[in-house]
Amino acid sequence: MYLARVIGRVVATMRSPGLEGVAMQWIQPLDEYGQAMGDTLVAAAAISSGPGDLVHFVDGREGALACPETFVPVDAAIIGFVEEAAIGEIDLAEIEPDMAAARGAIGTRSAPGARGRGGAGGKQG
Amino acid sequence: MFLADVIGTVVSTVQIPVLDGEKLLLLRPVAPDGRGVSKTRIGIDRAQAGVGDRVIVIDEGNSARQILDAPNGAVKTVVVGIVDYVERDGELLYDHREGTRGSPGGIPGEKPGQKKVRT
Question: Of 2.40.50.220, 3.30.420.40, 3.30.565.10, 3.40.640.10, which CATH number belongs to A2-95?
């Protein structure tokens, strides 16, 4: 289980059966300083989180267990909001998220050619 | 299982039900000498551990579900023990027992030997 910041939403209309109604969100895992730790990933949201929220998530097989249907192809799930993450005097939850920087690290696609089927899939780095 | 330093606490009120009432700790996995060895993670406290403790952590789902008695819980990382000392070839790499000083891999700002009495 790790700390992460939700940096965006992922919308997919064609899904594996069992994943209907499960929100997919784009997250950036964080270290104890609130800095990006490793690559961003897409996680199923078991709570009503949204971009900007500090959350914790579980990876591996346990990700699917957090979904309404537990036998689904999910390997990461957001399982809680973080109200406070205290490291000494510092509370990571009080640090304003730098969303522009978070997204800028990955880059966003807005080109018309990115639209339509096949445009959104398989772009994971 | 691996060793980790407890570097902070995490408070979460809105979360999946299996985590209700559980204390969450921020953990930095370490080698016995205190070097960080992998990604910082969050663990469920089942050892009454606190900031400054070096702990034993399980990061595996089946064990976690068994410990928490939650057959379908989305849980993975659990703190299962507090380390008193680590010894290798007769040399103490880490010592956090009552009355001893100078734990080699302590958290900066954390006083060594600042521990509750254990029997």
Answer: 2.40.50.220
